[in-house]
Write a structure and sequence with these properties.
The protein is of the alpha/beta class and 305 residues long. The chain has one domain (29-302): Rossmann fold, CATH 3.40.50. It is 30% helix and 19% strand. It has a nine-stranded mixed beta sheet, sandwiched between helices. Strands 3-4-7 form a three-stranded antiparallel beta sheet. β11, α8 and β12 (268-273) form a beta-alpha-beta unit. It is globular, with a radius of gyration of 18 Å.
């Protein structure tokens, strides 16, 4: 009966924005590790769309025409320092671009740990990320996806989240589960753009670390959320891109993660550009970094082969 109610909830809650875009909630009812406090999210458009205080996490699914789909799917986590989501700049815009390449794209509106409605807030972004990967796999047949070709993509703090789900995909918290939770949350591959990786000392992006685990986190917690310390032989193949002049998130973050991947013989592709700064997105007007998406497409054609 509970399963039927959930299915009906999905059917009534989902919104088909147009023939190729679908919006689905991540969870049935009140999401796990959250209290219903009647809070509302805030959306601000000032050049880009910024979303704050997410209360109803969801996925926006962008589908290419059926004849274009190549079986790949990319689950996208926008950045914003775990304080906001740069929802179009590092989310919807990239989803539309991936669609043009025949790739199904899923933008995740994940909950941010600074919301007062959350219980054990540090666990919530990862929980939403795992759910997004599982929910995508649950729709593989409907959306023309190969379940073995579901990757993740993240920008800045969204890159931290993508690397966290890539290394802690089987991490669990005490909560009720359903049939979707029986599916794997392990990404098939990862794409990390100027990612926050390490919460340790000089490499740390202090804003992301403060928002996720607080100012006085234990060393154990700092290490748990430092991606370079959690890479194993099972971590998925990874593409990294970063600018050398990034003053927001030091380039050492990508270097540390690449070194860890290489040490575990995980296939990895690291691309460093001398200029581009932080948050370059598509890289348009930023010189050589504007070509990074072409390099990514070449990598996507061979990843997992």
């Amino acid at each position: 009966m509970k399963k039927l109610v959930f299915i009906l909830s999905i059917l009534t809650s989902s919104v088909i924005v147009n023939a190729q875009e679908i919006v689905l909630p991540l969870w049935e009812g009140t999401p796990p590790l959250q209290k219903d406090m009647g809070l509302e999210e805030k959306v601000v458009e000032e050049g880009i769309i910024r979303i704050e205080n997410v209360q109803i996490p969801q996925i926006d699914v962008f589908l290419p025409s059926k004849q274009m789909r190549n079986g790949q799917a990319v689950v996208i986590f926008p950045g914003g320092g775990y304080g906001i989501l740069a929802y179009d700049w590092e989310g919807r815009d990239f989803a539309k671009w991936l669609n043009a390449q025949g790739i199904v794209a899923i933008v995740v509106k994940y909950r941010l740990p600074n919301s007062k409605s959350l219980i054990d807030a540090k666990e919530v972004p990862l929980l939403d990320a795992q759910r997004a990967v599982r929910l995508t796999r649950s729709h593989a047949e409907d959306w023309g996806i190969d379940p073995a070709k579901v990757g993740v993509m993240g920008f800045s703090a969204g890159g931290h989240l993508a690397s966290t789900v890539s290394t802690q995909y089987d991490h669990e918290v005490d909560r009720s589960t359903d049939a979707i939770d029986q599916l794997s949350a392990k990404p098939s591959f990862s794409i990390l753009a100027y990612p926050v990786i390490s919460f340790r000392d000089a490499s740390a992006h202090s804003g992301s670390r403060k928002n996720l685990i607080g100012d006085n986190a234990s060393q154990e917690l700092i290490d748990r959320f430092s991606g370079e310390l959690n890479v194993t032989d099972e971590t998925p193949p990874t593409f990294l891109v970063h600018a050398q002049d990034d003053s927001g998130v030091p380039i050492e973050n990508s270097l540390l993660y690449y070194d860890a991947l290489n040490a575990h013989k995980v296939p990895a592709s690291l691309h460093i550009y001398p200029q581009g700064g932080h948050g370059f997105g598509f890289g348009i007007g930023k010189g050589p970094v504007s070509g990074w998406r072409d390099v990514l497409l070449d990598w996507l054609k061979t990843v997992g082969q």
